[in-house]
């Protein structure tokens, strides 16, 4: 319902007027709102492949950045240190590279290090002097998936490729360090892959850039500075910006609350488009059944296959359903399409593994994403959203057809 400004109480009118009269915050925010950034212009600020390209470029001593091996040494040095992550169970993470290996690498000439992109689909692969391997799997808005519709996880497949190639095709043994790089320290499915974050990358890159910027070419300087800004603002979130926004909100709380209460949220607009797509896609199709939720941030539904999997399970609290969820992000909406299991037990784990392949469960789990896809939308473009949903429902149907065909084959044996 729209609010007529003339019908507002006098104190709210005055609050809006004070906000409009206060132009000081525009100048303060201009540091972020008016800054040109090549990654934003090209719409690649959250594109994993571009971040992998940038990191590989920085790490390669033979690239044209003029850094030589300096950034590579800084990166390896950080891998030899313990890290403390508040968001990771156990907090303290042991060094990825142990002391003996660290001493060798940091005292060696790393000029002949080779850096590969997408070697056997691994995001970044490095071979270093002394028969050392560093592999990096990079995730920003996505999560691990099973490898080529097999029961193996993506990381398990990559470990097998690395172990086989560097034992069969080479006479001397290799030492492997495998890194799972995410914004906030997501837990890898395989124990030989180690947690590393974009916060760690920033902690290396910022002081490194400050030390070297006066000796860099203009092109390299601009590119690295832009990349630091993107990591700060888009991937990790900038504390200075958060503090400023909190200051503005405290000063003009009444006016800002009034504005927010009278506009549609970006997530509700997104879900409205998703609801429209869902209703059209599932029209006169008894296979789909929407769970009656009033939330403007998600859509939850089941299919006949999912209901049939759920039906014989005796645990009353167990739930199995698809969910389309929208959350606000710094530059639009972060959407997810998931198949979610809720409140299961060991018996249910076995059933889910039988239907969906190899899954990793934490002890006493409450929520489990069985299938998931993430995408960040910079703009609310109905065509782009519909294309994404079409792809997701095609994947859903493909997976459920596999389950149905397996069931038929088992019945014919």
Question: How does this model look, in words?
Answer:
The protein is about 45% helix and about 20% strand. With about 425 residues, the chain is of the alpha+beta class. The chain has 2 domains: about 200 residues, no CATH class; about 150 residues. A hairpin with a 7-residue loop joins β1 and β2. α5 packs antiparallel against α8, α8 packs antiparallel against α9 and α12 crosses α15. The chain is flat, with a radius of gyration of 25 Å. It starts with 9 loop residues before the first helix and ends with a helix. The mean pLDDT is about 80.
Features of the shown structure:
5-stranded mixed sheet, 15 helices, 46% helix, 5-stranded antiparallel sheet, 413 residues, alpha+beta
What's a concise summary of this model?
Helices cover 46% and strands 19% of the residues. It has 413 residues and is of the alpha+beta class.
């Amino acid at each position: 319902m729209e609010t007529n400004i003339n019908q507002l109480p006098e104190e709210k009118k005055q609050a809006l007027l004070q906000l409009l009269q206060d132009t000081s915050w525009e100048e303060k925010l201009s540091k972020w709102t008016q800054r040109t950034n090549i990654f934003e212009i090209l719409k690649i600020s959250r594109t994993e492949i571009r971040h992998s390209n940038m990191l590989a470029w920085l790490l390669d001593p033979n690239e044209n950045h003029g850094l030589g091996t300096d950034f590579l040494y800084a990166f390896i040095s950080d891998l030899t240190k313990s890290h403390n992550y508040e968001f990771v169970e156990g907090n303290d993470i042991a060094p990825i590279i142990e002391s003996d290996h660290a001493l060798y690498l940091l005292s060696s000439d790393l000029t002949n290090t080779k850096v590969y992109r997408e070697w056997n689909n691994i995001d970044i692969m490095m071979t270093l002097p002394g028969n050392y391997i560093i592999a990096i799997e990079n995730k920003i808005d996505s999560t691990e998936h099973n490898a080529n519709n097999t029961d193996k996880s993506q990381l398990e497949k990559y470990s097998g490729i690395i172990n086989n190639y560097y034992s069969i095709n080479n006479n001397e043994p290799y030492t492997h360090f495998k890194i799972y790089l995410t914004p906030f320290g997501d837990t890898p499915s395989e124990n030989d892959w180690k947690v590393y974050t974009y916060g760690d990358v920033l902690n290396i890159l910022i002081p490194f850039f400050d030390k070297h910027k006066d000796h860099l070419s203009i092109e390299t300087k601009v590119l690295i500075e832009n990349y630091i800004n993107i990591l700060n603002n888009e991937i990790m979130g900038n504390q200075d910006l958060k503090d400023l926004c909190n200051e503005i909100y405290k000063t003009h709380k009444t006016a800002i609350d009034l504005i927010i209460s009278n506009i549609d949220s970006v997530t509700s607009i997104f879900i409205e488009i998703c609801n429209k797509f869902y209703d059209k896609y599932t029209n006169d199709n008894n296979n789909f059944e929407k769970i009656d939720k009033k939330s403007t941030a998600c859509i939850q539904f089941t299919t006949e296959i999912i209901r049939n999997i759920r039906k014989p399970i005796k645990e009353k609290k167990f739930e199995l359903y698809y969910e389309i969820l929208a959350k606000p992000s710094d530059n639009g909406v972060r959407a997810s399409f998931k198949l979610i299991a809720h409140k299961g037990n060991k018996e249910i784990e076995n059933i889910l593994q039988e239907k969906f392949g190899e899954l990793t469960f934490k002890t006493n789990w409450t929520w489990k994403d069985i299938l998931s896809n993430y995408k960040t939308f910079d703009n609310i473009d109905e065509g782009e959203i519909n294309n994404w949903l079409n792809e997701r429902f095609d994947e859903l149907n493909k997976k459920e057809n596999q389950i149905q065909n397996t069931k038929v084959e088992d019945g014919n044996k």
